[in-house]
Amino acid sequence: MPRSIVCERCGRSLVVHDDDARDLCCPRCLSPIRDAAVQASPPIRQTPAGRRTPILQPLIRADQQVRRESRIQLIILIVIGLMCVLGILLPLQAGGFAFITLAFFILDVVILIVLIRALYRWSVPRPGGGRREWVAAGGRAVVASVLLPFLCMAVVIVLGTACGILVEVHP
Amino acid sequence: MIAAWKPILLDHGATMTDLRWEDARRLEAWAGEVRVNLLRAASLIVFYGYHLLNVYVLSADATLKGEYHAKVTLIVLAWALAVGVLHVSLSRRWVPPLLKYVAVAWDLVMISALLLIDKQAGPHSPLIVLYFLVIASAPLRLSLPLVYAATLGTMAAATLMMGGYVFAVVGAVDYYDPEKGYKVGRPAEVIFLLALGAAGLLAGQSVRQARRLVEGYPVAVQEPTEGD
Asked: Lower CB density within 10 Å: C or N end of chain B?
């Protein structure tokens, strides 16, 4: 039964046709719709003529597709990263590459991945925080984008120096 | 009686069908951008995977392993970085109107860079067909201006790439030297640009038809009642 609700983010009036409102989002501002808010809203009375009008349901909804593909995207990004690492290591290995340098290179990449992931999680808005949380999350995202290049440089310099010293001591 | 079907004009000048289209388009354009980004990433894996296989397993050509391989890896890294930025933006539901234009422009820059890294590549490389993929990806965002921008942008990028190849990579003297074999015939250039234009027209038509589907048709088949 269709229900009428107001979007918590943009304030638009929305009609939800699906009883199960999980994974739905506002078509105007794309913010998620809370299932509890839909269940709490009054149903819209339908006319007999309106009841006969079929509602076209897609095979998979856009927001469900986005959620599913975002997960696959992360895996693919990791695979691309590993392939690029392989692409850099293959010519180095062909030119006589020290094992210790290779170990430090892999350590470098792993630390950078952990760092980027931590900064991303820090800047993601907390659920149910409302507009103020989105603004704060935007601020955190800006800070994270400024911090990220400097932190990456610092990690590369520290590990590169450590690796250089070790190679000199144990050639 | 069949009522006359016409768009209802709202106070601020927009029609009801305009709003309906915009609401449907916004959601599907977001899903389309995510799908394009996913396919972009998957294509990078497949194409770069084949490159690695070709350079280190299948081919004995030593020239591929040096500067050429380093340049290809650099371009793939830059492209993957763009995929990552788009992923963060889209998964945070931050979809500014300019995002799709930036994504298309970045794709065109990357393809052109890939074609200009080697004298043997350029217009002679099979990678030139990647320009068509940029046009093919435009209708998924359900935006007619983007289809126009992608089509005209691709034609401009292909022309600039050609200019860069002639004057910067090969050099005009070598390029026009018939014995060197770098020259591409004028008919081939024109036909390639015309084919890009035709692909753009087809892409635009699919967006127009999607809009018609959303707006609906004034006549609907009434379902039979239980008594019929």
From this structure: N
